[in-house]
Amino acid sequence: MVAAGLLVLSLFTLALGKPVVQSSERHVVRSQVDTLPRGFSYVGKAATEKTLNLRIALVQNNASGLESALYDVSDPKSANYGNHLSKAQVEAMVAPSAESVQKVKAWLGKNNITAQTISPAGDWLSIDVPVSQANALLKADFNEYTYDEANSTAIRTLAYSIPETLKDHLAFVYPTTQFIPPAKRHVPAFEIVSLPRSSKRSRSKRAAVPASCAKQVTPECLQALYNIPTAPATAKANSLAVSGFGDEIANKDDLTEFLTALRKDATDGTFTAVSVDGGITDGAGTTEASLDIQYTVGLATNVPTTFVSVGAKNKDGDLSGFLDIINFLLAQDQPPLVLTTSFGFNELGFTQQPDLAVNLCNAYGQLGARGTSILFASGDGGVSGPQSSNACNGQAFEPTFPSGCPFLTSVGSTQGINPEVAADFSSGGFSNIFARPSYQDDAVAAYLSKLGNTNAGLFQAKGRAFPDVSTQGVNFVVDIGGQGQGVSGTSASSPTFASIVALLNDQLLNAGKSPLGFLNPLIYSSGASAFNDITKGSNPGCGTQGFPALEGWDPVTGFGTPDFNKLLTLVTGSAASGSAASNSTNNAASSGNAAAAGNSTNNAATSTGAGRKHRHHNSNN
After folding, report:
1. Residues annotated as part of the active site
2. 577-589 pLDDT, tens digit each
3. Does the global pTM surpass 0.85?
4. How far apart are alpha carbons 398 and 427 in whole angstroms?
5. What contacts 73, CB < 8 A, 6 or more positions away?
6. Residue 53: beta bridge partners?
7. How far apart are CA 238 and CA 302, in angstroms?
8. CA 37 to CA 617: how far, in whole Å?
9. Given phi > 0 = left and psi -120 to 50 = alpha, else beta, which region is 314?
């Protein structure tokens, strides 16, 4: 269904290079690109003998049911809040029908092609075919194109068709008409700094935050600012995962040195590294991975933390492992309770052919339904995309992806102490693919009313708005090879907020309750008052000043920065003992934030709670 030019989501090999059997069966155009996307150039005809690895997405049998179930278990007003689905329940909803599998495999078999299933639910197939066979099979014309900025080449077609009998069974084939620029890590420039030492100053009030925190941020600063407890987590079932791409890796010796300098009370913190798609699991620490691990292990004290290293042997092509890592986690009986990612795309690369973005977003929804909180750094380009760019000057703003997906939590950045203001690089705005979810309606409508005609015509006002929350993101001190570096970006903010969520989960699990799971319905309703409203700053880009931070939610900092004690009171009914600032003087979120607690619910799923993993006992219901 299309509304106002936006997609309203519904949730959710090996081939023999033999000639394609010619058939008179009627074909229908499945996808067509009218103009080559910005940044891509035609090179020439693809070599006919070149092997293509094509992935076939099958239509999921109960996508709308899974979306309803996701909201049902994530909405604090629902009787099923926290009653997360099991692996089997999720897979049953997204698995293709037996008829779809039979018809698609019969079509491939008739053309001497054998498919391999590559997703836990069986909704993705993979085939290897030469270009000549792909052209005949899909009535396509595969050519070679280059993405100029990265000087990388790709084989794509501007159109393809499938048999009419498969139109209700085969969702799309990839890569075909999808022209997606490479994913980008959200880390801008860094500078060499000296590793400070942890302070013995009292951190009982925000006003007592060490003055040095205005120049460089350490775990101690964040504990003082956001009331993050220093006591070790104790729940055995707790877990936190950090995703890494492009040969990023954290080093355990660097982590130990970092903790020795900045968390003397928790020097034994560590992590486990696992590989997806041939990702590296040891070596000299790199900037992004070091930042993410040092500020998850360094803040979420004693929470079991895993670094998921995604290599270049991707099964998902231009998605660079983004779908592969989710399929890897979905295949686990107990996926991590929190997942933070500091990489992303410019959404512009998905707008002409949004099927792939929708499929990936729905995969995040699958994890959310099982109880995983998924967090993404919003990006570092203000309103110009994941990185600052002049390409959009005089044109519409460019949102980031996956932050525009409504089934995850997008994290922006702030800076400064008194006052804490928006970081000017903090990406934010409105998706051109995903419609605004109902849980955002009141908060976003209030902002748009105050915004008036500012930036009129430069953004899709009915799109999913982001970010949802924010934390500090400027001059984080990290240790790489024994040398201090000051790093800035929303890639510092997402692991910070992930740590807070992991520590909240620890308290919930120890109280016999379920983990938080998908956060946004909570945040946009009763959770809004647990954030410090940020009302100064903006996120310039595209030749404009971007969006201003205003009272209440805004597309620069979301609802603002978290107060752990208030969040804990919200989710458990009691404040933390031993927090970094139990007597916080942080400003409460404004009444404008609280006003976001309007109609954030979607229709509850009709399924019962039988067989689900967790159940909240919410004192606020």
Report:
1. 288, 292, 491
2. 544 444 333 333 3
3. yes
4. 9
5. 80, 81, 82, 83, 84, 85, 369, 371, 517, 518, 612
6. 128
7. 10
8. 50
9. beta
